[in-house]
Amino acid sequence: MMIHDFDMARFLLGEEFVTVSALGGALVDKAIGAAGDVDTAAVQMQTASGKIAVITNSRRASYGYDQRMEVHGSRGMLRAGNVHMSTVERADGAGFTADVIQNFFIDRYVAAYAAEVRSFIDALASGSRPTPSGHDGLMAQKLAEAATQSWQSGEAVRVV
Q: Which of 33, 75, 113, 146 is placed for a possible disulfide with 20 were both Cys, Cβ 3.0 to 4.6 Å?
């Protein structure tokens, strides 16, 4: 359930991960656990140079499609927050109240999907290599398999 997060982590850190450690459980939907899967998971990964990525994931967020990201570095931090249904906020004596966050990935990423299709068509038209590549997909899959192995074994796994 983290395949896109593995992609994003590789892109943001600009390096391959060499170690993966994962935890998971069926805490929300027991049927998922009975099927041998998890609905709540955490993964910690490290590159050869020591960069660390931590991903937490749940199949259910009652408050909307929760997908946030932070990148911390020696010169500061980059953060992308959730996208709300509107930009309206109310402030009163009880604090701040905002509209709910979007509840479906297509709502949130429609512009990104359109940009990806345009980029792919442009690459084909110009004869350049499209990105992401098949190699990027393969590396995300290797991370997913390492995370599954780590969750099942309870041990950190080296990525090869």
A: 146
